[in-house]
Design a protein that fits this description.
mainly beta, Neuraminidase, four-stranded antiparallel beta sheet, 11 strands, 11% helix, Topo_IIA_A_a_sf, ATP binding, DNA topoisomerase type II (double strand cut, ATP-hydrolyzing) activity, DNA gyrase subunit A
Amino acid sequence: SVLADEHKVMNIIKDDLLEMKKKFGDERRTEISMESSEMDIEDLIAEEDIVVTISHQGYIKRQTMDNFRSQKRGGMGKTGGSGKKIDDCAEHLFLSTTHHNILFFTNKGRVYRQKGYEIPEAGRTAKGTAIINLLPLEQGEKITAVIPVKEFLDEQFMFMATNKGTVKKTKLKDFDSARKNGLVAINLDEKEDLIGVELTDGNSEIVLATRN
């Protein structure tokens, strides 16, 4: 019988499927491509508040806000610095989120960009990761300002100042193209360093003070 012959059964099923394809089949209505399977890694990372610390000797780390709790009067506080080295201390400390863009400005007039979640997480007493392992800093290049940015808005600006008294205002949106390899934020003369950067709405009053 037909049912006893597996080969005949498979041929009948094949013929039936081909007949159904001719009768009901149509062109594929969806396109399969690499783009449709790609996913932004940021979509997989929860947005949460973080504290970022950069030490004087160039170590960086991020911590969750859970590591910092309100202290009552007379509380002893908690250690949140960069390790146990006596000759090191926190030079930059700021609040951000894992989804914010972090702009790192250096004394050489360059700016680098990382996402908050790209900064390695470490405990309160850990010194963190050497920042030269995250950013391609040159010999003698040092972070002088760090600005966390959620969006690159047209109505916001970066105000920069150098040790020789040069100032510059640039649209924040111009830094949207900054990546890990960095770009030039301000052109500097010989022996001139970028010493300060602030985010402004373009209408704020800026006060500059000299050493004397």
